[in-house]
Protein backbone atom coordinates (compact mmCIF):
# COMPACT_ATOMS: atom_id res chain seq x y z
CA UNK A 1 0.00 0.00 0.00
CA UNK A 2 1.23 3.49 -0.88
CA UNK A 3 -0.06 5.13 2.30
CA UNK A 4 2.96 6.34 4.37
CA UNK A 5 5.26 4.98 1.65
CA UNK A 6 7.33 8.17 1.29
CA UNK A 7 7.64 8.68 5.02
CA UNK A 8 8.81 5.13 5.69
CA UNK A 9 11.26 5.28 2.80
CA UNK A 10 12.74 8.45 4.29
CA UNK A 11 12.95 6.81 7.70
CA UNK A 12 14.71 3.77 6.25
CA UNK A 13 17.20 5.96 4.40
CA UNK A 14 18.10 8.03 7.45
CA UNK A 15 17.65 5.46 10.25
CA UNK A 16 18.09 2.05 8.65
CA UNK A 17 16.18 -0.75 10.28
CA UNK A 18 14.21 1.35 12.75
CA UNK A 19 10.81 0.97 11.12
CA UNK A 20 11.09 -2.81 10.96
CA UNK A 21 12.42 -2.97 14.51
CA UNK A 22 9.46 -0.99 15.84
CA UNK A 23 6.98 -3.02 13.80
CA UNK A 24 8.13 -6.20 15.53
CA UNK A 25 6.81 -4.97 18.89
CA UNK A 26 3.16 -4.71 19.96
CA UNK A 27 2.04 -1.12 20.41
CA UNK A 28 1.49 -1.63 24.14
CA UNK A 29 5.08 -2.79 24.61
CA UNK A 30 6.44 0.25 22.78
CA UNK A 31 4.33 2.67 24.78
CA UNK A 32 5.28 1.48 28.24
CA UNK A 33 8.22 2.73 30.24
CA UNK A 34 10.94 1.68 29.80
CA UNK A 35 10.25 1.35 26.09
CA UNK A 36 12.38 -0.75 23.74
CA UNK A 37 11.80 1.92 21.10
CA UNK A 38 14.36 4.28 22.61
CA UNK A 39 17.22 1.81 22.31
CA UNK A 40 16.14 0.91 18.75
CA UNK A 41 16.27 4.62 17.91
CA UNK A 42 19.85 4.83 19.15
CA UNK A 43 20.92 1.68 17.29
CA UNK A 44 19.54 3.13 14.05
CA UNK A 45 21.59 6.32 14.45
CA UNK A 46 18.58 8.50 15.18
CA UNK A 47 20.37 10.91 17.54
CA UNK A 48 22.34 12.37 14.64
CA UNK A 49 19.38 13.18 12.39
CA UNK A 50 19.68 16.97 12.64
CA UNK A 51 23.40 17.13 13.42
CA UNK A 52 25.04 18.78 10.39
CA UNK A 53 26.99 16.49 8.09
CA UNK A 54 30.10 18.54 8.84
CA UNK A 55 29.83 17.22 12.40
CA UNK A 56 29.26 13.58 11.36
CA UNK A 57 25.47 13.71 11.53
CA UNK A 58 22.85 12.94 8.90
CA UNK A 59 22.30 16.63 8.24
CA UNK A 60 18.63 16.03 7.45
CA UNK A 61 16.60 18.86 5.97
CA UNK A 62 13.41 20.05 7.61
CA UNK A 63 11.40 18.22 4.94
CA UNK A 64 13.21 14.96 5.58
CA UNK A 65 12.85 15.40 9.33
CA UNK A 66 9.08 15.91 9.29
CA UNK A 67 8.61 12.84 7.11
CA UNK A 68 10.73 10.81 9.51
CA UNK A 69 8.72 12.04 12.48
CA UNK A 70 5.42 11.09 10.84
CA UNK A 71 6.73 7.59 10.17
CA UNK A 72 7.96 7.27 13.74
CA UNK A 73 4.66 8.51 15.14
CA UNK A 74 2.80 5.92 13.11
CA UNK A 75 4.80 3.13 14.80
CA UNK A 76 5.41 4.49 18.29
CA UNK A 77 3.71 7.68 19.51
CA UNK A 78 5.89 7.95 22.61
CA UNK A 79 9.06 7.77 20.54
CA UNK A 80 7.79 10.54 18.26
CA UNK A 81 7.20 12.84 21.23
CA UNK A 82 10.49 11.97 22.94
CA UNK A 83 12.60 12.32 19.82
CA UNK A 84 10.94 15.59 18.86
CA UNK A 85 12.41 17.01 22.04
CA UNK A 86 15.82 15.47 21.24
CA UNK A 87 15.79 16.90 17.72
CA UNK A 88 14.57 20.26 19.03
CA UNK A 89 17.50 20.27 21.47
CA UNK A 90 19.94 19.56 18.64
CA UNK A 91 18.39 22.23 16.42
CA UNK A 92 18.61 24.70 19.28
CA UNK A 93 22.26 23.88 19.79
CA UNK A 94 22.95 24.25 16.07
CA UNK A 95 21.25 27.65 16.04
CA UNK A 96 23.02 28.79 19.21
CA UNK A 97 26.31 27.73 17.64
CA UNK A 98 25.87 30.50 15.09
CA UNK A 99 26.38 32.92 17.95
CA UNK A 100 28.91 30.76 19.80
CA UNK A 101 32.65 30.61 20.23
CA UNK A 102 33.71 27.28 18.75
CA UNK A 103 33.45 24.15 20.97
CA UNK A 104 29.82 23.43 20.09
CA UNK A 105 30.94 21.67 16.90
CA UNK A 106 32.83 19.07 18.92
CA UNK A 107 29.79 18.53 21.11
CA UNK A 108 27.55 17.97 18.10
CA UNK A 109 30.06 15.53 16.65
CA UNK A 110 30.17 13.59 19.92
CA UNK A 111 26.38 13.39 20.02
CA UNK A 112 26.26 11.95 16.50
CA UNK A 113 29.19 9.55 16.82
CA UNK A 114 28.30 8.23 20.27
CA UNK A 115 24.55 8.23 19.54
CA UNK A 116 23.78 10.23 22.64
CA UNK A 117 20.24 11.12 23.65
CA UNK A 118 19.70 14.75 24.49
CA UNK A 119 16.78 15.87 26.64
CA UNK A 120 15.44 19.40 26.39
CA UNK A 121 15.58 21.81 29.28
CA UNK A 122 14.72 24.73 27.00
CA UNK A 123 11.69 26.86 27.65
CA UNK A 124 9.40 28.12 24.93
CA UNK A 125 10.22 31.78 24.39
CA UNK A 126 8.51 34.76 22.82
CA UNK A 127 9.58 36.89 19.87
CA UNK A 128 11.39 39.87 21.31
CA UNK A 129 12.34 37.81 24.34
CA UNK A 130 14.47 34.73 24.85
CA UNK A 131 13.39 31.39 23.41
CA UNK A 132 15.78 29.93 25.93
CA UNK A 133 14.29 31.76 28.94
CA UNK A 134 15.97 29.82 31.71
CA UNK A 135 14.24 27.41 34.03
CA UNK A 136 17.71 26.81 35.44
CA UNK A 137 20.03 29.28 37.15
CA UNK A 138 23.78 29.37 36.60
CA UNK A 139 26.53 30.99 38.60
CA UNK A 140 30.31 30.92 38.52
CA UNK A 141 32.01 29.44 41.55
CA UNK A 142 35.75 29.51 41.07
CA UNK A 143 36.60 27.55 37.95
CA UNK A 144 33.22 25.79 37.83
CA UNK A 145 29.71 26.72 36.75
CA UNK A 146 26.97 25.64 39.16
CA UNK A 147 23.39 24.98 38.03
CA UNK A 148 20.16 24.78 40.00
CA UNK A 149 16.53 24.36 38.92
CA UNK A 150 14.21 21.84 37.33
CA UNK A 151 12.33 21.01 34.14
CA UNK A 152 9.00 19.20 34.11
CA UNK A 153 7.85 17.45 32.11
CA UNK A 154 11.16 16.53 30.50
CA UNK A 155 10.99 13.83 27.84
CA UNK A 156 13.78 11.22 27.80
CA UNK A 157 14.32 11.98 31.48
CA UNK A 158 15.34 8.39 32.28
CA UNK A 159 17.27 7.57 29.10
CA UNK A 160 19.06 10.84 28.40
CA UNK A 161 22.81 11.02 28.12
CA UNK A 162 22.78 14.81 28.17
CA UNK A 163 20.39 17.54 29.19
CA UNK A 164 20.54 20.79 27.25
CA UNK A 165 19.38 23.85 29.12
CA UNK A 166 19.35 27.55 28.49
CA UNK A 167 21.04 29.62 31.17
CA UNK A 168 21.81 33.28 31.72
CA UNK A 169 25.48 33.46 32.67
CA UNK A 170 27.33 36.50 33.98
CA UNK A 171 30.73 36.94 32.39
CA UNK A 172 33.92 38.37 33.86
CA UNK A 173 32.82 41.79 32.58
CA UNK A 174 29.65 41.61 34.67
CA UNK A 175 27.36 41.33 31.64
CA UNK A 176 24.72 38.58 31.62
CA UNK A 177 24.77 36.61 28.38
CA UNK A 178 22.87 33.70 26.93
CA UNK A 179 24.53 30.29 27.13
CA UNK A 180 23.52 26.71 26.47
CA UNK A 181 24.62 24.19 29.07
CA UNK A 182 25.18 20.54 28.23
CA UNK A 183 24.78 18.53 31.40
CA UNK A 184 25.83 14.87 31.54
CA UNK A 185 22.95 12.86 32.97
CA UNK A 186 25.29 11.10 35.39
CA UNK A 187 26.45 14.37 36.98
CA UNK A 188 26.15 14.53 40.78
CA UNK A 189 23.06 16.52 41.67
CA UNK A 190 21.00 15.42 38.65
CA UNK A 191 17.90 13.55 39.82
CA UNK A 192 14.72 12.34 38.14
CA UNK A 193 11.39 12.40 39.94
CA UNK A 194 8.03 10.96 38.87
CA UNK A 195 5.77 13.48 37.17
CA UNK A 196 3.86 11.86 34.28
CA UNK A 197 0.67 10.39 35.72
CA UNK A 198 -1.09 8.93 32.68
CA UNK A 199 -0.30 5.77 30.69
CA UNK A 200 -0.80 7.73 27.46
CA UNK A 201 2.64 8.47 25.98
CA UNK A 202 4.33 7.03 29.06
CA UNK A 203 7.13 5.68 26.87
CA UNK A 204 8.35 9.25 26.28
CA UNK A 205 9.65 9.30 29.87
CA UNK A 206 8.31 12.80 30.55
CA UNK A 207 9.16 13.13 34.23
CA UNK A 208 10.84 15.88 36.23
CA UNK A 209 14.58 16.46 36.00
CA UNK A 210 15.95 18.37 38.95
CA UNK A 211 19.39 19.98 39.21
CA UNK A 212 20.81 20.65 42.67
CA UNK A 213 24.23 22.34 42.77
CA UNK A 214 25.31 20.59 39.59
CA UNK A 215 28.89 21.56 38.77
CA UNK A 216 30.01 21.85 35.17
CA UNK A 217 33.33 22.46 33.55
CA UNK A 218 33.00 25.71 31.54
CA UNK A 219 33.77 23.72 28.38
CA UNK A 220 30.29 22.17 28.71
CA UNK A 221 28.65 25.58 28.48
CA UNK A 222 28.31 27.05 24.98
CA UNK A 223 28.67 30.77 25.55
CA UNK A 224 27.40 33.35 23.09
CA UNK A 225 27.98 37.04 22.64
CA UNK A 226 24.26 37.70 22.93
CA UNK A 227 23.24 39.57 26.06
CA UNK A 228 20.37 38.07 28.04
CA UNK A 229 18.11 41.05 27.36
CA UNK A 230 18.86 41.21 23.63
CA UNK A 231 18.46 37.73 22.19
CA UNK A 232 17.79 38.12 18.46
CA UNK A 233 14.38 37.12 17.20
CA UNK A 234 16.13 34.73 14.82
CA UNK A 235 16.72 32.32 17.70
CA UNK A 236 13.13 32.55 18.83
CA UNK A 237 11.67 31.97 15.40
CA UNK A 238 14.07 29.12 14.58
CA UNK A 239 13.23 27.29 17.78
CA UNK A 240 9.49 27.63 17.32
CA UNK A 241 9.65 26.60 13.67
CA UNK A 242 11.47 23.36 14.46
CA UNK A 243 9.26 22.65 17.45
CA UNK A 244 5.98 23.14 15.59
CA UNK A 245 6.79 21.22 12.41
CA UNK A 246 8.44 18.25 14.13
CA UNK A 247 5.77 17.95 16.79
CA UNK A 248 2.89 18.28 14.33
CA UNK A 249 4.33 15.66 12.00
CA UNK A 250 4.72 13.19 14.86
CA UNK A 251 1.14 13.58 16.00
CA UNK A 252 -0.11 13.30 12.42
CA UNK A 253 1.77 10.00 12.35
CA UNK A 254 -0.28 8.78 15.31
CA UNK A 255 -3.52 9.63 13.52
CA UNK A 256 -2.09 8.02 10.38
CA UNK A 257 -1.60 4.77 12.28
CA UNK A 258 -5.36 4.73 12.88
CA UNK A 259 -6.01 5.46 9.20
CA UNK A 260 -3.74 2.57 8.25
CA UNK A 261 -5.71 0.20 10.47
CA UNK A 262 -8.94 1.31 8.82
CA UNK A 263 -7.54 0.85 5.32
CA UNK A 264 -6.32 -2.66 6.21
CA UNK A 265 -9.38 -3.82 8.10
CA UNK A 266 -11.21 -6.88 6.86
CA UNK A 267 -13.94 -6.04 4.38
CA UNK A 268 -12.88 -2.43 3.99
CA UNK A 269 -11.29 -2.71 0.57
CA UNK A 270 -14.27 -1.26 -1.26
CA UNK A 271 -14.82 1.71 1.07
CA UNK A 272 -14.34 5.32 0.07
CA UNK A 273 -11.01 6.13 1.78
CA UNK A 274 -11.34 9.90 1.58
CA UNK A 275 -13.06 10.48 4.97
CA UNK A 276 -9.98 9.01 6.67
CA UNK A 277 -7.27 9.84 4.20
CA UNK A 278 -7.90 13.41 3.08
CA UNK A 279 -7.77 15.31 6.41
CA UNK A 280 -4.43 13.90 7.57
CA UNK A 281 -2.85 14.00 4.12
CA UNK A 282 -3.89 17.63 3.65
CA UNK A 283 -2.56 18.54 7.09
CA UNK A 284 0.75 16.83 6.34
CA UNK A 285 1.02 18.68 3.04
CA UNK A 286 0.73 21.92 5.00
CA UNK A 287 3.53 20.83 7.33
CA UNK A 288 5.67 19.86 4.36
CA UNK A 289 5.02 23.25 2.76
CA UNK A 290 6.44 24.97 5.83
CA UNK A 291 9.39 22.57 5.90
CA UNK A 292 10.13 23.32 2.24
CA UNK A 293 9.92 27.04 2.96
CA UNK A 294 12.46 26.62 5.77
CA UNK A 295 14.97 25.60 3.08
CA UNK A 296 14.23 28.49 0.73
CA UNK A 297 12.83 31.44 2.65
CA UNK A 298 13.75 33.72 5.52
CA UNK A 299 12.88 32.36 8.96
CA UNK A 300 10.69 35.25 10.00
CA UNK A 301 7.43 35.83 11.83
CA UNK A 302 5.39 35.28 8.67
CA UNK A 303 6.82 31.78 8.28
CA UNK A 304 6.20 31.07 11.94
CA UNK A 305 2.56 32.04 11.48
CA UNK A 306 2.38 29.54 8.61
CA UNK A 307 3.82 26.86 10.92
CA UNK A 308 1.24 27.65 13.59
CA UNK A 309 -1.51 27.59 10.96
CA UNK A 310 -0.37 24.14 9.82
CA UNK A 311 -0.24 22.93 13.42
CA UNK A 312 -3.77 24.14 14.26
CA UNK A 313 -5.10 22.73 10.99
CA UNK A 314 -3.55 19.41 12.00
CA UNK A 315 -5.36 19.53 15.34
CA UNK A 316 -8.67 19.85 13.48
CA UNK A 317 -7.71 17.09 11.05
CA UNK A 318 -6.71 14.76 13.88
CA UNK A 319 -9.98 15.33 15.72
CA UNK A 320 -12.05 14.57 12.60
CA UNK A 321 -9.94 11.62 11.53
CA UNK A 322 -9.77 9.84 14.86
CA UNK A 323 -13.55 10.00 15.27
CA UNK A 324 -14.13 8.70 11.75
CA UNK A 325 -11.56 5.91 12.13
CA UNK A 326 -12.89 4.66 15.45
CA UNK A 327 -16.39 4.56 14.00
CA UNK A 328 -15.16 2.67 10.93
CA UNK A 329 -13.24 0.14 13.00
CA UNK A 330 -16.39 -0.54 15.00
CA UNK A 331 -17.28 -1.81 18.41
CA UNK A 332 -15.66 -5.21 18.09
CA UNK A 333 -12.29 -3.62 17.34
CA UNK A 334 -12.77 -1.38 20.38
CA UNK A 335 -13.57 -4.40 22.55
CA UNK A 336 -10.88 -6.65 21.11
CA UNK A 337 -7.86 -4.35 21.28
CA UNK A 338 -6.93 -1.11 23.05
CA UNK A 339 -4.75 0.04 20.15
CA UNK A 340 -7.38 2.14 18.37
CA UNK A 341 -8.54 4.06 21.40
CA UNK A 342 -4.94 4.48 22.55
CA UNK A 343 -3.84 6.00 19.23
CA UNK A 344 -6.84 8.33 19.23
CA UNK A 345 -6.05 9.48 22.77
CA UNK A 346 -2.36 9.95 22.02
CA UNK A 347 -2.99 11.92 18.82
CA UNK A 348 -5.17 14.43 20.67
CA UNK A 349 -2.09 15.35 22.72
CA UNK A 350 -1.02 17.86 20.06
CA UNK A 351 -3.69 20.17 21.46
CA UNK A 352 -1.92 20.41 24.81
CA UNK A 353 1.46 21.66 23.59
CA UNK A 354 2.24 25.37 23.68
CA UNK A 355 1.26 27.74 22.28
CA UNK A 356 -2.41 26.82 22.71
CA UNK A 357 -4.71 27.86 19.92
CA UNK A 358 -6.98 29.84 22.23
CA UNK A 359 -4.07 31.84 23.60
CA UNK A 360 -2.89 32.69 20.09
CA UNK A 361 -6.22 34.15 18.90
CA UNK A 362 -5.44 37.76 19.81
CA UNK A 363 -1.74 37.63 18.86
CA UNK A 364 -2.63 36.27 15.42
CA UNK A 365 -5.26 38.97 14.98
CA UNK A 366 -2.70 41.61 15.95
CA UNK A 367 -0.16 40.13 13.51
CA UNK A 368 -2.73 40.32 10.71
CA UNK A 369 -3.21 43.96 11.61
CA UNK A 370 0.48 44.62 11.14
CA UNK A 371 1.83 44.32 14.67
CA UNK A 372 4.69 42.11 15.83
CA UNK A 373 3.82 38.50 16.62
CA UNK A 374 3.51 37.65 20.29
CA UNK A 375 3.44 34.08 21.58
CA UNK A 376 0.65 33.91 24.13
From TrEMBL:
<dbReference type="GO" id="GO:0050660">
    <property type="term" value="F:flavin adenine dinucleotide binding"/>
</dbReference>
<keyword id="KW-0274">FAD</keyword>
<dbReference type="InterPro" id="IPR037069">
    <property type="entry name" value="AcylCoA_DH/ox_N_sf"/>
</dbReference>
<dbReference type="InterPro" id="IPR046373">
    <property type="entry name" value="Acyl-CoA_Oxase/DH_mid-dom_sf"/>
</dbReference>
<protein>
    <submittedName>
        <fullName>Isobutylamine N-hydroxylase</fullName>
    </submittedName>
</protein>
<keyword id="KW-0285">Flavoprotein</keyword>
<dbReference type="InterPro" id="IPR009100">
    <property type="entry name" value="AcylCoA_DH/oxidase_NM_dom_sf"/>
</dbReference>
<dbReference type="GO" id="GO:0003995">
    <property type="term" value="F:acyl-CoA dehydrogenase activity"/>
</dbReference>
<keyword id="KW-0560">Oxidoreductase</keyword>
Amino acid sequence: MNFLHHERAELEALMPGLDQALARHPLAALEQTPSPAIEEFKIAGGPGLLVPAAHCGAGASALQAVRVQRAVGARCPSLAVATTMHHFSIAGLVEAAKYGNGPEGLLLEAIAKERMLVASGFAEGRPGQNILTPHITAERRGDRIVLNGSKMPCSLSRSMDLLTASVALTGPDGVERLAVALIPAASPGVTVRPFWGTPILAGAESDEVRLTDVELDPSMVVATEVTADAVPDALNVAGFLWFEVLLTAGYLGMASALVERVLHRQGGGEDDPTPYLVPVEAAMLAVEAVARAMADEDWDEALLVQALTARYAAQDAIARTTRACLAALGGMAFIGSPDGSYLASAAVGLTFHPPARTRMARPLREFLDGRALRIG
